[in-house]
């Protein structure tokens, strides 16, 4: 890209115009083009001012960021991607919440493959021990078929209902250094996954991870990872947002400091999702070390309805079919249309709402990727449990997903996708 084009693209990003990403077309198996003048998503949003005008006008205040990927198949079935961006800026921080669980779940499978120890796999018994009085141990899992805690069980809980403890156990298995250095080596240099979730640990405690042991069915120890302290040196940030925060019952009238919180940009989340859904269509450097069975496992539980799971069991009155499927459904508790499966991971915390989704309609043979983040904190106060998810976040995601889906439903395709590899027996 020449300097004039770079300047034009930069100006368009700043102004909030949707643009197509310019990926390197020289990379093997990646099909890219660039079309700045014609943008389907921008046109779609303009057609529905009732849904999107306020979001577009307040895009910076809401830190609303969107990436929409149109997928076209070639004659040989390879996917060609056209990416459209709205207000995406990796320097505009949003708290990634539970979306950090997605790469950690992937890395847990990768780590097992790297260890390559006979008898050690995602279904091997995993016992978490302690070395510090603030750490907690895990010796059994009452939600598994036989009471054994396993990597597979933890990943299922993460993908089905975004279980925080399951994430913490995988964080402890991998360690802070492995998580971050692995992602940095793949080109995700801005990633910082540096703390557990839903527990009040300080920076030093989050550097320390529990001892973990794996046993075979006869009780024989196959692999042991001792407790570790991470020496990770990560880029320092000065990330302060809002105008105040609650500490206990007291309002502190100063911005909330996110400098020591997890960081994961929308562009990185989008790239990670694409690499999992289309491993053959991304450069080798962006591909995780996974087997075909690993991909099937991830795809199945990314798209499964919680009620379809026997172990763990989830009550359908609490975990409906559209639970955490915010694109197209928002917070609606309804049944998903027949033939549609959404392969996704969401995050919701501190007023931030994030969703990364690959949507497949098996009835009409359509597919697309949609990822977005938005801040739902109009009063600028954090930790007060007064967020605008219901009035701003969920409606925006619902309408965004529905408008893109309806557009995809009408869009002509030269070659229909073969989605048969994403059909699963969810009866387990």
Could you write a compact summary of the structure shown?
By secondary structure, the protein is α+β, with helices and mostly antiparallel strands. Helix content is 31%, strand content 18%. The strands form five sheets. The chain has a six-stranded antiparallel beta sheet with strand order 1-3-2-15-14-13, sandwiched between helices. It has a three-stranded antiparallel beta sheet with strand order 4-6-7.
Topology (SSEs and partners):
Blueprint: H1 3-14, E1 19-20, H2 40-47, H3 49-57, H4 59-62, E2 65-73, E3 79-86, H5 101-115, E4 125-128, H6 151-161, H7 164-174, H8 176-185, H9 203-207, E5 208-209, E6 212-215, E7 221-225, E8 228-229, E9 240-241, E10 244-247, E11 250-252, E12 256-257, H10 266-277, H11 292-303, E13 340-349, E14 352-361, E15 366-375, E16 381-382, H12 389-410
Parallel strand pairs: 10-16
Antiparallel strand pairs: 1-3, 2-3, 2-15, 4-6, 5-8, 6-7, 9-12, 10-11, 13-14, 14-15
């Amino acid at each position: 890209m020449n300097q004039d084009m770079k300047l034009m693209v930069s100006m368009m990003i700043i102004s909030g115009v949707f643009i197509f990403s310019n990926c390197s077309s020289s990379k093997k198996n990646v099909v890219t083009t660039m079309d700045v003048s014609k943008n389907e998503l921008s046109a779609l949003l303009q057609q529905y001012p009732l849904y999107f005008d306020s979001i577009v006008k307040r895009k910076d205040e809401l830190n609303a960021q969107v990436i929409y990927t149109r997928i076209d198949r070639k004659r040989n079935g390879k996917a060609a991607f056209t990416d459209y961006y709205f207000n995406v800026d990796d320097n505009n921080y949003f708290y990634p919440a539970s979306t950090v669980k997605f790469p950690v779940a992937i890395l847990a499978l990768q780590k097992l493959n790297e260890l390559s120890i006979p008898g050690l796999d995602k279904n091997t018994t995993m016992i978490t021990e302690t070395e510090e009085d603030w750490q907690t141990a895990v010796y059994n899992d009452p939600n598994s078929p036989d009471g054994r805690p396993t990597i597979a069980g933890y990943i299922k809980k993460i993908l089905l209902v975004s279980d925080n403890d399951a994430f913490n156990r995988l964080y402890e298995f991998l360690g802070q250094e492995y998580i971050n250095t692995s992602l940095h080596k793949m080109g995700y240099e801005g990633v910082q996954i540096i703390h557990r979730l839903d527990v009040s640990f300080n920076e030093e405690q989050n550097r320390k991870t529990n001892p973990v042991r794996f046993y075979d069915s006869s009780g024989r120890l196959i692999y042991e990872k001792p407790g570790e302290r991470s020496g990770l040196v990560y880029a320092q940030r000065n990330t302060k947002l809002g105008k105040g925060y609650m500490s206990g019952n007291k309002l502190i009238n100063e911005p909330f400091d996110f400098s020591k919180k997890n960081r994961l940009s929308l562009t990185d989340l989008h790239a990670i999702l694409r690499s999992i859904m289309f491993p053959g269509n991304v450069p080798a450097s962006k591909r995780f070390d996974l087997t075909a069975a690993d991909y099937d496992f991830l795809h199945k539980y990314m798209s499964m309805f919680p009620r379809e799971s026997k172990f763990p069991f989830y009550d359908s009155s609490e975990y409906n079919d559209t639970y955490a499927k915010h694109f197209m459904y928002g917070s609606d508790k309804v049944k998903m249309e027949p033939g549609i499966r959404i392969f996704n991971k969401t995050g919701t915390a501190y007023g931030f709402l994030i969703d990364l989704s690959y949507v497949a309609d098996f009835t009409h043979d359509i597919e697309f990727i949609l990822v977005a983040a938005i801040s739902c904190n109009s009063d600028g106060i954090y930790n007060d449990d007064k967020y605008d998810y219901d009035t701003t976040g969920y409606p925006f995601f619902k309408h965004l997903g529905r408008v893109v889906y309806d557009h995809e439903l009408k869009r002509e395709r030269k070659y229909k996708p073969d989605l048969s590899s994403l059909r699963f027996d969810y009866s387990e």
